[in-house]
Specification:
3 domains, Serine Threonine Protein Phosphatase 5, Tetratricopeptide repeat, 3-stranded mixed β-sheet, 4-stranded antiparallel β-sheet, single chain, 10 helices
Length: 363
């Protein structure tokens, strides 16, 4: 044993002889080229299992041509469990496309494009690569892309009950056109829910702001406080408005009564003055028509009466005119100049997460 170890140390370990190829491996090398068996061994797959995967793939392709997509997909998945070939991504994508599951088809085409550069067991046709790229472009024209950004990382995005990943997402979420329900949630934060109607070929981007539960409680406290302050201010303004309305009505009624009373008294005085003026004409004519030889004592009574009537008519006319003008001016002031207090108008002021109520008044 000692001499054997010494021989190995001095001359080096002998070169291991390659394992001879089996009959099945020779057939595979004849079909796929020299070195295929060695590459297959590196993958950890036996020739028999590889041949079995080929048979499954062949039957799956037949099912795919016959539009039996469920069976074809099952066979492709089983074959992929044996050999992780990128070709099976392409076949599965075609099956998903035939089933109308366009989102899954796009994912499988993308997986094919990502896996084929590192695949060395068999050749990948450039035509197949080009077709996969064209299929992705067509699918993206029939799908809608949704991009969601949040202010807080590690937020879970769920669409129609299916988790889509956590933020930040480095690519858009591709969805079928139509109405979708999106929920963005994170532990210790308030979930954000929104409903979107996506159109074919549309690219939608949403930036959502998640707030913590504590921040929401503080927000609700401020909202309630603002609401109570608004109510208190509204009550205060309402009381002031009622007092101003009551004062206005009192002044309006007072000036209206004074104005109508003055106007009525003025008209009465004018009528009385007119009556005295008419009565003044009789004594005046008798005095003027008396002869020069008439004694003073005979016309004195008519003269005094005429003078008294004239004085009364002048006084009542002046007072009546003043009262009519004053009453009219008072009524004009009560109806045109004296204004009622303006009504209180509530207005909604938009906030970041709520609407607050405020009141506008001219007091």
């Amino acid at each position: 044993m000692f001499f054997k170890l010494l021989f190995v140390l001095l001359l080096g370990a002998p070169t291991p002889q390659p394992k001879p190829l089996t009959a099945l491996e020779k057939k595979l090398e004849t079909r796929f080229g020299r070195g295929f068996a060695h590459r297959l061994r590196l993958l950890g797959c036996s020739p028999k299992r590889y041949v079995y995967a080929l048979k499954l793939t062949k039957v799956g392709l037949t099912k795919l041509v016959d539009a039996e997509y469920d069976d074809a997909l099952f066979l492709f998945k089983k074959a992929y469990s044996i050999v992780k070939s990128p070709h099976l991504f392409f076949y599965r994508a075609m099956a998903y496309k035939g089933m109308g599951r366009l989102v899954r088809a796009r994912v499988q085409f993308r997986a094919f494009l990502s896996a084929y550069p590192t695949w060395s067991l068999t050749k990948v046709s450039p035509r197949r690569v080009a077709r996969a790229k064209r299929e992705i472009q067509r699918l993206e024209q029939d799908l809608a892309a949704l991009t969601i950004e949040t202010n807080s990382p590690a937020a879970l995005i769920t669409i129609d009950g299916q988790p889509m990943g956590k933020t930040p997402l480095f690519s858009a979420i591709w969805l079928l056109p139509g109405r979708v329900s999106v929920v963005v949630s994170k532990r210790g934060h308030v979930s954000h829910r929104l409903t979107l109607t996506l159109k074919r070929g549309e690219r939608v981007q949403r930036q959502l702001r998640l707030i913590t539960t504590q921040a929401l409680l503080e927000q609700n406290r401020r909202r309630i406080q603002a609401r109570e302050m608004a109510k208190a201010r509204a009550n205060s303004l309402r009381i002031r408005h009622e007092e101003a309305t009551k004062k206005y009505r009192y002044r309006h009624n007072l000036f209206s009564i004074v104005g109508w009373s003055g106007f009525a008294l003025g008209v009465t005085a004018l009528l009385a003055g007119g009556a005295y003026a008419i009565a003044f004409l009789g004594p005046k004519e008798r005095v003027e028509q008396s002869d020069r030889d008439t004694k003073w004592t005979d016309v004195k009574k008519d003269y005094v009466r005429a003078r008294s009537y004239a004085t009364n008519a002048m006084i009542l006319g002046g007072v009546g005119g003043f009262l009519v003008l004053g009453g009219g001016a008072t009524l004009y002031y009560a109806k045109k100049i004296l204004k009622a207090p303006p009504p209180i108008t509530p207005t909604l002021v938009p906030g970041p997460h709520s609407l607050s109520l405020s009141f506008t008044s001219h007091f």
